[in-house]
Each structure stands twice: as C-alpha cells, then as structure tokens.
Design brief:
It comes from Aspergillus turcosus. It holds the Pfam family MOSC. One of its GO terms (molecular function) is catalytic activity. This is MOSC domain-containing protein. InterPro entries: MoCF_Sase_C, MOCOS_middle, Pyrv_Knase-like_insert_dom_sf. This protein is of the alpha+beta class. The protein has a single domain, classed as M1 Pyruvate Kinase, Domain 3 (Beta Barrel). Helix content is 20%, strand content 32%. It contains eight helices and 20 strands. The protein has a seven-stranded mixed beta barrel with strand order 1-15-14-18-17-16-20. The protein has a four-stranded antiparallel sheet with strand order 5-11-10-9. A three-stranded antiparallel sheet has the order 4-3-19, with no helix packed on it. It starts with 7 loop residues before the first helix and ends in a 10-residue tail after the last strand.
C-alpha cells in the first residue's frame, strides 16, 4: 500500500507536472511573478461584478463616477469625446506635459444634457452641450484638423468664449476640441487585421475602454505602504470599468470578457492588450502635483510583464466592445476566454 503521507509523492507529482506543462505556461508564470499553481487557473472562468464606472469627457482632465451609462462601440458615452490642443499647432495636450490639467473638472447637469466645466480654485464655470447636434456645432465651432499622437483626424474647435478661462489657467493658448465625424480607426493591437473588424474610437490614447481590477489596486497599495508611500485610488489610472476582482493581476490573461444583467442583456469585449503605463498615475488628481517616484517606481519593480513593451509597467486591460447597450454598477462580469499570447503593439 502506498504511503500518501510521504513527502516523496507530492515532490514526484510536482516534477511530473513541470515536465508536462508547456514552456510557454512556465514562462508566463515567471513573467508575472506568480506561483505555478496560480498559472494553472488559466482555463477556469472568472466571475466578478462591476463596482465602479468612470467617465473622462475631456482627455487628461478630471472625470466623474457614474452608476449607469451607455456603452458605444467607441467607448462609454461621452468618454474622451473632447480634448485640449495647442492653439497654434492643434496638437493634443495631456497631463504628461501639464499635470495641472487634472484640476479642470467635468460634470453633467441634472438633466444630463449639458457638460459643466470648472477649474479647482476658480469661480469660472463653462457650460456646453453634452451631445451637440450638427447645427450647434456649425454655429459655435470650426471643423479643423487636429493631431493626437501620430494621427491626424478632425475635430470641432471651440471659440474664445469657451477657451479663454482655460488659456488663463494653463498660461498658454489652448483650444477645446470635440471629436469630428471622421472615424479614428484603431491601430496597434486593435488593427482590423488583428481584431477582425474595423472599429474606431474618440480621443483615448489607443483603445475604447480600459478595465481595471480592485484586487490588483489593493495589492499595489500594499506594496506602496511597505515602500513608505501613500496608497492611491483607481482614479490615478483613469480606467472606465472597475471590477471587484479576486486574484490580483488575473486580468493579464483575459482575452474575451462579458458584462451581463439579470434582464438577459450581454455585452462582450475583446481584451486586446495590457495597458502600458507612463507616469500619469504619479499625478495627484486633487492637487495636480506629480510625485517624483510613486507609484511609478513600485510598478516598475514588478509589473514590467509585457514583452512587447518591456520598459513600461502595466496596469489595466485595453478592450474593444463587440456590441452596444446599457452598462451599470452591479452587473455581472465574466471572463469567457483567456490567453498567454498578449504582446503590446504600439497603437499610435
């Protein structure tokens, strides 16, 4: 009779397991600095729920939390439909160059028809239509070419009445721009040849929707505390859909996910890439001040996990919706398919 209390059998079984496992699985486990046992969960579906929805109407400006909204193929309704550009070059501006942009606040009016803009520490307020129709745009804006990264697209450029307060605040000539009618086709991991369809977005860096996990944020915050830094909120990462999550960094292997309601609505997403981070999360959205080291240093110490972009850490997953519908906090979130083949491809 075999003695199952002997330590020999578990060791032998583990050795056999290491032989059977493909090199790619072992490499994935090492890359993500997780245990071999965690890597074996790849075929197990993950179920969670949405705990927060966040919209950032103006690129690099402060957004707001919402409990329910519409999902479009281009992203969440109103998300990154505006951006600021340099008044002369019409090139986009972000927190990367101007951390104080996060002190420009956005909100919706009670009826949801107007976008309310304000500046922290200032009494100036601007109100513009949240969903301007062609007639309003023709009367109040000028359709022009604008540049975001290496892409030239069109945008409706607002006039001095809207721009003046922000020029004074940022101490430079800027213009607010609303995305024009020409589709901005996804590139990089969202290229039609890879995605299998042609899809567009507004003014995010690369892809329509960014999904993040509370479990991963909690794990990062534990490391920040051990490093003597303050914990941070998910707002630093400017994600759209935040799920509760259970296993930190399980999102690294997502390929297809679904959001569903008790009424039977199902919204599917192709998770096209990990989100490689710059130092925008170092900027405190409450003050506009950029920390010299964190959370960048901590993320760099263990989240350089994508071979396609080895010198940047990753947090969150970039995705492209397959269909449209209502999304709200509390909806079920499921991982339908996983992959070990994610590799970041530059999309701008």
């Amino acid at each position: 009779m075999m003695d199952f209390s002997s330590p020999v059998l578990p060791v032998a079984a583990l050795g056999l397991l290491l032989v059977v496992l493909s090199p790619s699985v072992i490499k994935w486990a090492r890359t993500n600095r997780c245990s071999l046992l965690q890597s074996l969960r790849l075929q197990k579906q993950t179920t969670s729920e949405i705990v927060s929805l966040r919209i950032y109407p103006i690129k690099s400006c402060r957004g707001f939390e919402i409990t329910k909204t519409n999902l479009r193929l281009q992203g969440l309704d109103l998300d990154r439909q505006w951006m600021f550009v340099d008044a002369k070059t019409h090139e986009f501006l972000t927190i990367r160059q101007i951390p104080q942009m996060t002190l420009i606040n956005t909100a919706l009016s009670e009826d949801g028809n107007s976008l309310l803009l304000s500046i922290t520490g200032s009494d100036e307020k601007i109100q513009i239509p949240a969903r301007p129709d062609p007639a309003w745009l023709a009367a109040h804006t000028t359709l022009s070419q604008v540049k975001i990264w290496d892409t030239v697209t069109d945008g409706h450029v607002y006039g001095d009445a809207v721009n003046a307060p922000f020029c004074r605040f940022l101490n430079r000539d800027v213009c607010l721009v609303y995305k024009g009618p020409t589709p901005r086709i996804l590139q990089g991991n969202g290229d039609p040849r890879l995605l299998g369809r042609e899809q567009s977005t507004n003014f995010p860096d690369v892809h329509p929707v960014l999904i993040a996990s509370e479990a991963s944020l909690a794990e990062l915050n534990q490391r920040l505390l051990r490093n003597g830094a303050e914990p941070i909120t998910v707002e630093r990462f400017r994600a759209n859909i935040i799920i509760r999550g259970s296993v930190p960094w399980a999102e690294d292997s997502w390929k297809t996910v679904r959001i569903s309601s008790e009424r039977g609505q199902e919204l599917d997403f192709d998770v096209v890439a990990r989100c490689a981070r710059c130092q925008v999360p170092n900027v405190d959205p409450d003050t506009g001040e950029k920390h010299k080291r964190e959370p960048w240093d901590t993320l760099m110490s263990y989240r350089r996990v994508d071979e396609g972009i080895k010198y940047k850490p990753c947090f969150g997953m970039l995705s492209a919706p397959r269909n449209e519908g209502v999304v709200e906090v509390g909806m079920k979130f499921e991982v339908l398919e996983e992959t070990m083949q994610h590799r970041y491809i530059k999309g701008f």
